[in-house]
Each structure stands twice: as C-alpha cells, then as structure tokens.
C-alpha cells in the first residue's frame, strides 16, 4: 500500500483562531498565490527551506563550523546563507542551540500528523474544536489533504480547511463532503487587481465559493483589510454583495499586520509593503458597517 506523504511546515497545537473551539492547525507547504501582504511566506514554496531568526542569534558559529557545504558565513553581525550552495541537509538547524535557524518543510505521513493531532484530541469534544488544515494553500497537496481529512472523519474529528479557493473545481469537490467548515479567504473582487496583488486570477476562487455555497458547505469568509489595496469602497461593497448573493452570512475582518516582515528577511526575500501600517479601528468599523448593510454577520479579529 502506498503511504501518501505531505510537506508540512508547522503543526500548531491549542490553536483558537483557526475555527471554533480548541484546534490543531496543520500547515501544508506550497501556495500558488503571492499576496503582497502574505504573513506566512514560509508556506509559499512547496520545497524545504531555511529561515534565519536574527534576534535569537548569539554568534556561537556552530552552524558555520558544521555546515558540510560551507554555505554559511557571517557578514558583520548577520548570518548569510548561500542558498545556491546549501543542500538543505538541516545539520545547521540541528546544531544551533537557540533555534536561530529553522528548517521548514518536512515530509510526513498521515499517521505522523495524526500522532500530533491525538495529543489535542481530548479537548475537541468539550470545546467543539477539531483539526484545521491551512497553509500555504492546502489544495496544492490535494491527495495528502484528502487522505488527512479522511482519517480525521474516520476518527470522528471535526475538520476545517483554510483556503484561498484557488484550485480546479474537481479538487475542491473531491474533499468538500469531508470538510465541516471552509475558512475562505477573500482578497479582491476585481480580477485585474487580484492578478496584480496576488499573481493569479480570481475566477476559480469566486466560482468555487459559489459552488460550495450552492452545495450546502459551511463557509466562513476571512477578509484581510490591507490599506490602500482592498479597503476602498468599491472593493468592499462589491465583495459584500457577492458574499451575500451566495447566501453566506459569516465574515471575519482581519486587520493587516506587519508580523511577516522579519520572516521575509529570514528567508532572504524582498517584502513589498515595508512602509504599510495596520488599519485604524475607525477604518475597520467603517468596513464592518459596509458588510453589515449587505446583511452579513461580521466580527473583527479572531478566527
């Protein structure tokens, strides 16, 4: 029997912002979108990679001295990773005494993931929690996602999938009856603007949302408010109208935050929105009122 494996970059226990109750959130690696404001850049590539956490570094040089490919060096006070030379053996992460270097992305079987899930399972029933599969974009690993959801349902564990909805309908349809709740991320309603700020069309995203709604799936919209990008009146009102037209009522507004900036630096990537600030409470409440006028139930923050 072939044992399906998935590339996982984190498993977060006792999560309370990724669906109802106490949850275990499994983060699958790989995403076809490149949202300018992405706060989980370590989930974008499906391959393993190294992240350098500058603030934890004590300059003990254990990583440099133990790297078999000589891919690490110090430039003044900062570690430099030659990513072309690095073969991702993970030795530097193992030797680092302060977890300065994180090795992101491990191939795990469903059994190995469920071993972690089992540690939280006693808390699921009382809190009405369960397992949330996030990313990245979990639909990119559709076979592993399907196997993981199947195992959860076999054990009677409630499931949620945090998704952008960017995938062929056949993939979404394949897992829909195994998902108790879709945490559906909306970005921009205008296709041209969506392409500009995420790199992909939103046609699959909107079509899959409508189809899931029509098929009776439980959908909870999460809308990240990004100042100057998707918080204008046209995008907000048209997004609210589309959601309401699909007979979906639950929306969560998530304010843009700057937590991902250090991650980009640690991965050696450029962050596009360095000067962008978190939206004000006043702006969030104005957007909340727009959504509520469309007949939607809205809350700010949380999962």
Strand order across the biggest sheet? 7-1-2-8-9-10-11-12-13
C-alpha geometry: globular
* Number of domains as seen in the coordinates: 2
Termini separation comes to 37 Å
CATH topology of the largest domain: TIM Barrel
Folded structure, characterized:
Helix 6 (169-176) packs parallel to helix 8. The protein has helices at 62-66, 91-95, 110-120, 124-127, 142-154, 169-176, 191-198, 203-214, 233-245, 261-267, 281-293, and strands at 5-15, 23-28, 49-52, 72-75, 78-81, 101-104, 106-109, 130-134, 159-163, 181-186, 219-225, 250-255, 297-300. The longest helix is centred in the middle third of the chain and has 13 residues, at 142-154. It has 303 residues and is α/β, with parallel strands linked by helices. The strands form three sheets. Strands 7-1-2-8-9-10-11-12-13 form a nine-stranded mixed beta sheet, with helices on one face. Helix 6 (169-176) links the parallel strand 9 and strand 10 (181-186).
List the SSEs and their pairings.
Elements: E1 5-15, E2 23-28, E3 49-52, H1 62-66, E4 72-75, E5 78-81, H2 91-95, E6 101-104, E7 106-109, H3 110-120, H4 124-127, E8 130-134, H5 142-154, E9 159-163, H6 169-176, E10 181-186, H7 191-198, H8 203-214, E11 219-225, H9 233-245, E12 250-255, H10 261-267, H11 281-293, E13 297-300
Parallel strand pairs: 2-8, 8-9, 9-10, 10-11, 11-12, 12-13
Antiparallel strand pairs: 1-2, 1-7, 3-6, 4-5
Helix pairs in contact: 6-8, 9-11
């Amino acid at each position: 029997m072939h044992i399906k494996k998935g590339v996982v970059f984190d498993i977060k226990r006792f999560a309370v912002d990724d669906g109802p109750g106490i949850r275990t959130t499994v983060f699958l690696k790989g995403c076809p979108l490149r949202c300018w404001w992405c706060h989980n850049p370590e989930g974008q590539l499906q391959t393993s990679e190294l992240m350098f956490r500058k603030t934890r570094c004590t300059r003990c040089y254990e990583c440099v001295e133990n790297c078999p490919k000589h891919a690490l060096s110090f430039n003044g006070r900062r570690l430099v990773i030659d990513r072309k030379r690095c073969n991702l053996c993970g030795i530097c992460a193992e030797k680092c005494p302060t977890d300065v270097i994180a090795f992101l992305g491990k191939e795990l079987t469903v059994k190995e993931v469920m071993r972690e899930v089992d540690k939280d399972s006693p808390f699921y029933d009382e809190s009405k929690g369960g397992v949330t599969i996030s990313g990245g974009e979990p639909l990119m690993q559709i076979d592993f996602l399907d196997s993981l959801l199947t195992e959860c349902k076999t054990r009677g564990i409630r499931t949620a999938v945090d998704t952008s909805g960017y995938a062929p309908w056949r993939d979404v349809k394949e897992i829909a009856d195994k998902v108790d709740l879709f945490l559906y991320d909306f970005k921009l309603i205008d296709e041209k603007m969506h392409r500009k700020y995420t790199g992909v069309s939103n046609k699959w995203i909107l079509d899959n949302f409508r189809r899931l709604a029509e098929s009776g799936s439980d959908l909870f919209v999460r809308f990240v408010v990004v100042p100057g990008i998707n918080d204008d009146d046209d995008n907000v009102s048209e997004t609210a109208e589309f959601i309401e037209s699909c007979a979906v009522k639950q929306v969560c507004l998530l304010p843009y935050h700057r937590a991902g900036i250090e991650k980009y630096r640690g991965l050696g990537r450029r962050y596009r929105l360095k000067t962008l600030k978190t939206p004000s409470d006043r702006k969030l409440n104005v957007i909340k009122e727009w959504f509520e006028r469309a007949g939607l139930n809205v809350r700010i923050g949380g999962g």
